[in-house]
């Protein structure tokens, strides 16, 4: 007994040193009306570079499809373009890469973080030094090398997260996220040292509208809401020192990955969009979640005063679906879909 007590006393400081995880689920997946973030669509003017980034640098698996003509029309694209779908074997958000004209509009030229729309994707990392060597070997540059950010985890509690921001094609930022002793934001492949995308981050001009869309309509739960301030242009976002922004993290109930980060700049820190958000503009053009009840989503959207766009088409790797497109205040589309068993 004395020996056991001594062991417990020795271990106590180590146990106390691990902060509570603010991103742990607050409810059960049984409460979820929608899935976690299922896929993002990346429209690219350089499909070879995009394939090299997701496939070689980030170690994702590729499967090719031809886009359904109806889906292509909904996306404002011609014909039935090739869809390169990148996934991880266990989990992670799928990335559907589709080639568009290289001289077409780009939602985020020069990786400008102050513009509205999806800023980037976050990848769980087992160690950013090794990830950095891997990604740089494939020819992709980092915005600022290895950086870190301090995040709150409760009253008087904080923890540090290692970050590295890569310049993926078409103005997309890809972050390696190393949470140290905290649980990773997604499953990490042991051999690659990195997992599939765990989240998408989106810049909005109206955080309140985004909160209604994600919370009241989709039923996501808000696990973190805070305000952050940049340390200067040497940081991963390349923003002036003291730039402040609201920061929210939204999860489907019960989910541990596939979440959405919302950022809204304070004090005029944001910029107006330079191109129409969503397809056929280059960059991340669509976020997609599945639902078990599309009618419930429509009713919630109406109650929240939001317009919906009803669509029907076939999705890569899924088949025929019925879908509703919802939009942020800046016009970025979020697709909510349900498999349609009655379709041919």
State the end-to-end CA separation. Answer: 69 Å
CATH homologous superfamily placement:
2,3-Dihydroxybiphenyl 1,2-Dioxygenase, domain 1
**Helical run tally:** 6
Annotated CATH architecture: Roll
Give the SSE string.
Answer: HEHEHEEEHEEEEHEEEEHEEE
Radius of gyration of CA atoms, rounded to a whole number: 20 Å
Total tally of structural domains: 1
Strand content: 35-45%
Q: What is the total tally of β strands?
A: 16
Q: Please summarize the sheet with the most strands.
A: 8 strands, mixed
Organism: Sandaracinobacteroides saxicola
Keywords: Signal
InterPro entries: Glyas_Bleomycin-R_OHBP_Dase (IPR029068), Glyas_Fos-R_dOase_dom (IPR004360), VOC_core (IPR037523)
Domain VOC: 196-339
Features:
344 residues, alpha+beta, 2,3-Dihydroxybiphenyl 1,2-Dioxygenase, domain 1, 19% helix, Glyas_Bleomycin-R_OHBP_Dase, Glyas_Fos-R_dOase_dom, VOC_core
């Amino acid at each position: 007994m004395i020996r056991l007590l001594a062991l417990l006393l020795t271990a106590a400081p180590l146990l106390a040193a691990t902060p509570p995880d603010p991103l742990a689920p607050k409810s059960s997946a049984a409460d979820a009306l929608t899935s976690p973030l299922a896929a993002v669509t990346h429209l690219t003017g350089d499909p070879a570079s995009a394939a090299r980034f997701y496939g070689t640098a980030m170690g994702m698996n590729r499967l090719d499809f031809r886009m359904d003509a109806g889906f292509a029309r909904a996306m404002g694209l011609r014909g039935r373009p090739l869809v390169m779908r990148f996934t991880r074997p266990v989990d992670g958000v799928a990335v559907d890469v589709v080639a568009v004209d290289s001289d077409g509009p780009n939602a985020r030229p020069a990786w400008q973080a102050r513009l509205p729309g999806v800023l980037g994707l976050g990848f769980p990392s087992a160690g950013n030094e090794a990830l950095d060597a891997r990604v740089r070997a494939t020819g992709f540059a980092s915005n600022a090398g290895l950086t870190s950010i301090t995040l709150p985890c409760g009253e008087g509690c904080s923890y540090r997260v290692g970050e590295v921001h890569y310049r993926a094609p078409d103005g997309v930022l890809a972050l390696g996220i190393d949470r140290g002793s905290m649980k990773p934001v997604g499953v990490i492949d042991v051999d690659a040292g990195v997992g599939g995308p765990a989240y998408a981050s989106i810049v909005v001009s109206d955080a309140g509208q985004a909160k209604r869309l994600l919370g009241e309509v989709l039923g996501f739960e808000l696990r973190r809401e805070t305000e952050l301030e940049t340390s200067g242009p040497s940081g991963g976002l390349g923003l002036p020192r003291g730039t402040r922004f609201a920061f929210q993290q939204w999860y489907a109930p019960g989910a541990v990955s596939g979440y959405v980060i919302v950022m809204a700049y304070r004090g005029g820190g944001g910029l107006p969009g330079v191109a129409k958000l969503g397809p056929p503009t280059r960059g991340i053009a669509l976020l997609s979640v599945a639902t078990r009840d599309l009618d419930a989503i429509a009713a919630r959207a109406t109650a929240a005063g939001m317009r919906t766009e009803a669509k029907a088409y076939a999705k890569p790797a899924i088949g025929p679906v019925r879908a509703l497109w919802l939009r942020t205040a800046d016009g970025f589309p979020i697709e909510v879909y349900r498999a349609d068993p009655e379709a041919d």
